Amino acid sequence: SVSTIVSSSRVEHRSESEQSPSLKFLTNCEYRLFQRPDEAIHRGFDKQAEADLSGSRNFISNFEPLNHADIQHMAERIVDFDAFSKPMQDLLRSMLQDKDAEFVVCSATPRKIGNVSTKNPRYLQSRPDMTNPFPRYVAERGLRLHRTIPMSKPAPFPVHSVLMGRRNNPPDKAAGIRSLAVYNPIHYQELPELFMDLICSLTGKSPSTTGFGSEGALTKGPFNMLRYAADLNATLVSYLLTDLKGFSTAAGHIGPNVQVDHDISLLIPEVWCRLEPHEREPAHLIAEGSLEKLNDVEYKGEMIPVSRLGYRITRRFVRNYFGRIFDHPLSVFDENILKPEVQDADSFYDGVKYICDAHRQVAEQYLEDGTAEQLCPPLRALIDIMASGSYQGMTVDSPELRNMFTRESLLQSEWYRDRLRNKQASDLRLMTRHLEYLQKRSAEFTGKDQIRMLRLEDRQAWLKARLKEIQSDSYLKSLQGTLGLDPCMT
């Protein structure tokens, strides 16, 4: 996907709740989605995966190739075979009927390596909104009718909420793995605490992680050796301009004893879309007691910085908002889930210490490899605090430090104005390069008919006007409220 930030003054037909000074827009650039159908081993459970894998033009990895004898054996066990959804049953039956077919894959049969089934089956799924565009079409038309948006104008769909997923693992003493399962279903963190976690890309254990760190291919060293400064700077600017909040959801485990896999992270968007805009605001949730602040705790003679976890949801949140989906939400989300420390206090507090250790270790690496020097001032200060506990006499709780993470501070800062000037200079270079190319091409043509046919003169005239516009002070002013361009990208 790709996203951008625009000043809301340039967006027509916004809703009453879309009044932030800047808005974030995102589009998915993929046609295929990288899917891991873990639950498909249970026949009939993952109907979407069975429907996808029963179709044609698939890209499939780590599924066992099954021959006629394998399918015949499966078909003879009628009760188990009937557990498949109809698309998978039809695929397997077609294999039996086609005597020329050599093999087929089944959603419930991952590839075996050394007589052990792999835990990493994969396939590329065609995007549902592209294979079936009707639901999105209805949603867009409904929005147009509600806001009376003409067909000649775009219907805006800005980002309203960011709900990050946390992959949390329980402790495994035998393997020397400490716990990250210290979060309850939903946490809210203010930007300093949130960016400590983002800088570390905190995740649970993962087979493709070569050390403490990151979830997702582009954040792991084996796949991406680039410094993260530009991405982190842009992310902070995005949060500050749009006033989006730092919510995260739990996946994997909540505490050492409750395994939730992706059930929670898939459920929360369903809850969120049932909240009114004001109900998603942290200030409102804190005021009504739906979010509680976590404070540092002294445990066994040691001060544990639990405040790094920010805020977490309470029984009131569960009753008020999960009740819009569940009849008896408090019987589902009990104290063991809302307060993971009651499961195992030792594991919980050691997990918090583990997170703080990770903050320090990653910050030290940023200082060693030079990444810290490319970070914007608020994040540069945060790196020192993560590494040593203070920056120029400030701690993470100092009002001066927290003021650096505000929109007002951003707009008044020289480093943000530098981003805007860099963007202006980059646009100027791009348009100049386009103009020089067209001038070169025009010189290569001998006949005016070719120049007229390609509209080269019209294009050059447009570029010259655009260049004049970009060089003006008004253009630089128009960039206010956008991401600009990071100095390390010029």
Account of the protein in words:
The chain is 43% helix and 13% strand. The protein is α+β, with helices and mostly antiparallel strands and 490 residues long. It folds into 4 domains: 1-31 and 135-157, no CATH class; 38-126, no CATH class; 160-358, Phosphoenolpyruvate Carboxykinase, domain 3 (Alpha-Beta Complex), CATH 3.90.228; 413-489. The strands form 5 sheets. Strands 8, 9, 10, 11, 12 and 15 form a 6-stranded mixed sheet that branches. Strands 3-7-4 form a 3-stranded antiparallel sheet. Strand 10 and strand 11 (258-261) form a beta hairpin. Mean pLDDT is 91; it is low at 207-215.
- The biggest beta sheet, please? 6 strands, mixed
CATH topology tier name of the largest domain: Phosphoenolpyruvate Carboxykinase, domain 3
**Which class of secondary structure composition applies to the elements?**
alpha+beta
Q: How much β-strand is present in the residues? A: 5-15%
Number of helices: 21
Mean pLDDT: 91
Assign a percent range to the helix content. Answer: 40-55%
Number of domains: 4
CATH architecture of the largest domain: Alpha-Beta Complex
Rough shape?
globular
Number of strands: 15
Name the poorly predicted regions. 207-215
Beginning-to-end CA distance, first to last residue: 23 Å
**What's the alpha carbon Rg, rounded to whole Å?**
27 Å
Highest CATH level, the class of the largest domain: Alpha Beta
